Amino acid sequence: MEKTLKPMSGYLTLVICLALFAVSVYFFISGVDQSVVYVVIAMLCFLLSCFFLKGLMIIQPNHSRVLNFFGKYVGTVKENGLFFINPLYSSQRISLRSENLQGQTLKVNDKMGNPIEIAAVIVWKVGDTYKAAYEVERYTEYVRMQSEAAVRHLAVSFPYDNLEDEHADITLRDGGDQVNKILEQELLERLAPAGIIIQEARITHLAYASEIAGAMLQRQQATAIVAARTKIVEGAVGMVDLALKKLSEDNIVELDDERKAAMVSNLMVVLCGEKAATPILNAGTLYN
After folding, report:
1. 149-197 pLDDT, tens per residue?
2. Separation in Å, CA 167 to CA 159, 162, 164, 170, 267
3. Residue 58: is it exposed, middle or buried by C-beta count within 10 angstroms (0-12/13-18/19+)?
4. Who contacts 10 (Cβ-Cβ below 8 Å, separation ≥6)?
5. Which of 73, 183, 216, 283 is a good FRET partner for 121, with 20 to 30 A between their CA atoms?
6. Counting beta carbons within 10 angstroms of the beta carbon of residue 78, is it exposed (0 to 12), middle (13 to 18) or buried (19 or more)?
7. Residue ranges with strand state E in 33-80
8. How far apart are the C-alpha atoms of 30 and 9, rounded to whole Å?
């Protein structure tokens, strides 16, 4: 488990190091002409100053240091500033800032087996420095690989759209925020062993693979045309029914079944045709 430390300020130690260094210079210059003892004292002061300097560390904002003492985890320093720690401690720098991971475009098969291209951007940061430092090897590489695996798993779990699976509750194309939340949850589960926090995950690229993109576009266009024609026919039938009822209710003209059939045919052609109808004046009757 992560343990937060608050080491002592390093400013006093810095002053001591500078003083020891100044003393070592003074005794070294004095000892050249007077005594070997002065040279020994100069060397000791210089070694002490170097030893204390090793214990000084500067931590930038939103950075941390994981401390280790001969293979044993000591704790993590998250405060920023100049600090002094045991010079025998080894430390590892870990950034606590949020980072963007722009995943590469992956070619995978969706739930229906159609090849698609998908990519995502992920915003993450280190939440547990102990896990990031000791539970996984190279946590940044771990984040990249697990993020790619999560995006692949998301793609194979849902269809691209509902053209082939009409009963699909969630599709990659229309899922929107729901698909993003599912991706975030899976990333949290996969990256929990490394102490990583997922702040945001969004699909940035989604398309059919190039080898089937043209065929799928034609299929979508055909589906849209059929749906539009269905609406047009439904509307035309309603208008024809209304016209016949109004003619009958207002006693404008008496129509037998044959005349009604002819009128329905003409109205359906006019209402469902793609081009404007060309009127033709009929001076005779239907029977002559």
Report:
1. 999 999 888 888 776 656 667 888 787 788 899 999 999 999 999 999 9
2. 11, 7, 9, 9, 36
3. exposed
4. 55, 56, 57, 81, 82, 83, 84
5. 216
6. middle
7. 56-59, 63-69, 72-77
8. 33
- Phi/psi for 255 (5° steps) reads -120, 125
For residues 142 and 44, what is the distance between their CA atoms, to the nearest angstrom? 46
- Using CA atoms, how far residue 78 sits from 7, 11, 73, 75, 126, in Å, is 10, 18, 15, 10, 12
Distance CA 187, CA 155 (A): 14
Pairing, β 4-5 against β 72-77: parallel
CA–CA gap between residue 155 and residue 114 (Å, rounded) = 10
Contact 80, 115 (CB under 8 A): no
CA 177 to the chain's CA centroid? 11
- H-helix segments, 138-287: 139-157, 177-191, 210-249, 257-272
Closest of 118, 108, 112 to residue 163, by C-alpha? 112
Residue 202 is inside which H or E element, if any? strand 196-208
Cα within 13 Å of Cα(265), Cβ side: 6
For 12-66, what is each residue's pLDDT tens digit?
A: 988 998 998 888 888 777 765 666 777 788 888 889 989 999 989 999 999 999 9
**Among candidates 180, 68, 80, 198, which has minimal Cα distance to 134?**
68
Each residue of 229-247: pLDDT tens digit?
677 777 777 777 777 777 6
User: Measuring CA to CA, how many Å separate 145 from each of 100, 116, 155, 181, 199?
Assistant: 14, 20, 16, 19, 18
Q: Residue 224 burial (CB < 10 Å; 0-12/13-18/19+)?
A: exposed
What six digits make up the tokens of 162?
A: 């509902």
